[in-house]
Amino acid sequence: MKKSWLLLTLSFCCLSLQAQFHTIAYSKPLYKMQGVVEPTETKCLPRDGEADKLVSFTSIAGKQSDEMRSHWIGCYMSVSYPLKKIIVTSPFGRRKDPFTGKRSNHKGLDLRANSEEVYAMMPGEVIKVSSDKRSGNYIVLRHGDYTVSYCHLSKTLAKKGAQVLPGEVVAISGNTGRSTGPHLHITAKYGKKHIDPAILLQLIKETREEALARLTIG
């Protein structure tokens, strides 16, 4: 199955990394993936999920070489969801502004979160840690040509210039800045253009699923 994938992730998928393990739940199917980069034949999957599952799946896949199993486990672990549970409360795009009541463009994605750990989704670098009246406390991570911002945080835990790994805790979600309640606001850019962060979540989901499928092939 061919799928679009972030070019930068292809270079990270086989790294030997340590990551948090999360249980992910969805209130509804994530968005259909939109093409922000050219399709690639290479298939490589994230790193996030339950350790016991991986052990079980790799045991089943007895006919695979140790090298291939290591490859797919590494790919499975090469990315992380930003929260333990993913529930979208306000999607990217046009919406009714909760403060003005007028239609406006929501350039990010809001996820349900209340003082929860926030994780780096991919290997990258912290390029900004700051605060303002709109975003509250926020942190910006660079992942190759992509930048991801986490906003309305109660606390930032990573410093500017730090190298981060998938699943590494970088902040605690909160309700700072221009916010109507506790949540995690994520913005994502490819170069200077805003993209729907749900694309990244969908890619993580598909990558994990494919990695697990590969690990069960006898």
Short overview:
The chain has four helices and twelve strands. The protein is α+β, with helices and mostly antiparallel strands. The protein has two domains: 7-82 and 199-215, no CATH class; 88-196, Glucose Permease (Domain IIA).
Residue-averaged pLDDT, rounded? 75
* Percentage of residues assigned to helices: 10-25%
CATH architecture of the largest domain: Distorted Sandwich
Quaternary organisation: single chain
General form: globular
Distance, first to last CA = 19 Å
- Annotation field: number of helices: 4
- The name of the CATH topology of the largest domain is Glucose Permease (Domain IIA)
Radius of gyration: 17 Å
Which residue ranges are poorly predicted, with pLDDT under 50 across at least 5 consecutive positions? 1-51
Largest sheet at a glance? 10 strands, antiparallel
Count of individual domains:
2
Q: What is the CATH homologous superfamily assignment of the largest domain?
A: Glucose Permease (Domain IIA)
What is the CATH top level name of the largest domain?
Mainly Beta
Give the structural class. alpha+beta
E-strand count: 12
SSE pattern = HHHEEEEEEEEEEEEH
Key terms for this structure?
10-stranded antiparallel β-sheet, 4 helices, two-stranded antiparallel sheet, about 220 residues, 12 strands, Cell_wall_metabolism_enzyme, EC 3.4.-.-, alpha+beta, Glucose Permease (Domain IIA), signal, about 20% helix
